[in-house]
Design a protein that fits this description.
Layout (H helix, E strand, L loop, with lengths): L5 E7 L2 H13 L4 E5 L3 H8 L6 E6 L3 H17 L1
Antiparallel strand pairs: 1-3, 2-3
Length: 80
Amino acid sequence: MEGMKVTKVCTARDKVEAEMILDILGQHNIQAYRQGIASGGLMDIYTGNSIFGEDIFADESDVEAARELIWNIIEGADEE
């Protein structure tokens, strides 16, 4: 991720949701990473999850495509 200008894409509710989002973005060749909110990073280390959620970041040039992809998945889940 060298040379990237990272921008927040969204906030996941927890580590599991964050990993699912990262997997979907990766399948569409969008490099991204997750970062715990507040002291959530420490909770993630000690308990394996955090109640504070996880922010998802990607390169500025991919943010719009990433958000659209996530939105389409959420809308599809709501229709079922």
